[in-house]
């Protein structure tokens, strides 16, 4: 567990290297993943994270505490990554968010309107027998998600941010966040199902 | 509530974001439907596994550079 924000901020302002190293090691991994969603290469993402930390070093003196320190750092990251993404002609239109329509489970899995039980499973999902490859399959499924879904699933489920934090970082509504999260999770689950079905 | 509706509400349910009536219907459906119970379980397993993915790390060079920049930043 990291100390409270006021302790961290005081450490950063006074030049306490242990505090800075701790933040660097605690947050950089998830920052890299977040950055990678806006730019086209791992090297670019690393530069975005580096530039973000440099901006934090320069700017922490002016940090007002209106949000948590982490949210403030991630906002800098997102802005830095977006600028870079524009340069690389890789923009993610977060603000003009159109809900990606359509069901998250193949409609053929459910009974049609003429059935006695319309909208109910044709056949229940198969039980999963999970082996060592499960993690690998999940990781690959995450990589293949559409960008906005991947960002939200990464922040929420991989990195463990709260819904409020993610909404603040990305400046999206709670409803949009939930839609992206649900679609992403459902797609990962479907990917695992398909993999297990194909392997059987 | 149909199964087809149920599967679209799973995240909202897990987030505690369903209104009271919808949540009641959701839970009632869950209690009666082994297919949706399994779907919800698999959803949870998927989320748990996402939380176990190994972190990426900053290269040693970049980390060293940043520590140096922090050390050398002029402070009053
Ligand atoms: Zn059902």
The total beta strand count of chain A reads 0
The mean pLDDT of chain B is 93
Sequence stretches where pLDDT stays below 50 over 5 or more residues of chain B = none
Average of the residue pLDDT scores of chain A: 88
Number of domains of chain A: 2
Category by helix and strand content of chain A = mainly alpha
**C-alpha-based Rg of chain B, rounded:** 23 Å
Helical/strand content category of chain B: mainly alpha
CATH architecture of the largest domain in chain A: Orthogonal Bundle
Output the helix-strand order of chain B.
HHHHH
Count of helical stretches of chain B: 5
How many H/I helices of chain A? 8
Q: Superfamily at the CATH H level of the largest domain in chain A?
A: Winged helix-like DNA-binding domain superfamily/Winged helix DNA-binding domain
Q: Fraction of residues of chain B in helices?
A: 55-70%
The pair of chains with the biggest contact is: A-B, 54 and 42 residues
N- and C-termini, Cα separation of chain A: 42 Å
Radius of gyration of chain A: 20 Å
Outline type of chain B: elongated
Please characterize this protein's 3D structure.
The complex is a heterodimer of chains A (200) and B (76). Chain A has 200 residues and is mostly helical. Helices cover 62% and strands 0% of the residues of chain A. Chain A folds into 2 domains: 5-87, Orthogonal Bundle (Rna Polymerase Sigma Factor, Chain: A), CATH 1.10.1740; 107-195, Winged helix-like DNA-binding domain superfamily/Winged helix DNA-binding domain (Arc Repressor Mutant, subunit A, Orthogonal Bundle), CATH 1.10.10.10. Chain A has 8 helices and no strands. The longest helix of chain A has 26 residues, at 174-199. Chain A starts with a helix and ends with a helix. The model of chain A has no long low-confidence stretch (mean pLDDT 88). Chain B has one domain (3-71): Arc Repressor Mutant, subunit A. The longest helix of chain B is centred in the middle third of the chain and has 17 residues, at 34-50. Chain B starts with a helix and ends with a helix. The model of chain B has no long low-confidence stretch (mean pLDDT 93). The structure holds zinc ion (ZN). Zinc ion binds at residues 3, 6, 29, 33, 35-36 of chain B.
């Amino acid at each position: 567990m990291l100390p409270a924000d006021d302790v961290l901020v005081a450490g950063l302002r006074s030049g306490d290297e242990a505090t800075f190293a701790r933040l660097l090691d605690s947050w950089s991994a998830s920052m890299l993943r977040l950055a990678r969603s806006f730019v086209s290469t791992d090297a670019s993402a690393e530069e975005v994270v580096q530039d973000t930390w440099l901006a934090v070093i320069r700017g922490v003196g002016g940090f007002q505490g209106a949000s948590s320190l982490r949210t403030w750092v991630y906002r800098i990251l997102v802005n830095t990554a977006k600028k870079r993404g524009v340069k690389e002609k890789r923009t993610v239109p977060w603000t003009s968010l159109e809900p990606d329509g359509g069901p998250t489970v193949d409609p053929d899995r459910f009974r049609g309107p003429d059935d006695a039980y319309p909208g109910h499973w044709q056949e229940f999902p198969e039980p999963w027998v999970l082996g060592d490859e499960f993690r690998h399959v999940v990781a690959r499924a995450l990589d293949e998600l559409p960008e906005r879904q991947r960002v939200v699933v990464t922040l929420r489920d991989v990195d463990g941010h709260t819904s409020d934090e993610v909404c603040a970082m990305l400046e999206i509504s709670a409803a949009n966040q939930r839609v992206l999260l649900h679609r992403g999770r459902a797609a990962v689950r479907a990917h695992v199902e398909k993999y297990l079905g194909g392997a059987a | 509530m149909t199964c087809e509706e149920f599967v679209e509400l799973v995240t909202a349910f897990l987030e505690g974001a369903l209104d009271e009536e919808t949540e009641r219907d959701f839970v009632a459906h869950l209690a009666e439907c082994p297919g949706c119970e399994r779907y919800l379980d698999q959803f949870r397993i998927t989320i748990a596994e996402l939380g176990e993915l190994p972190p990426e790390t900053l290269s040693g060079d970049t980390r060293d550079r940043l520590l140096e920049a922090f050390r050398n930043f002029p402070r009053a």
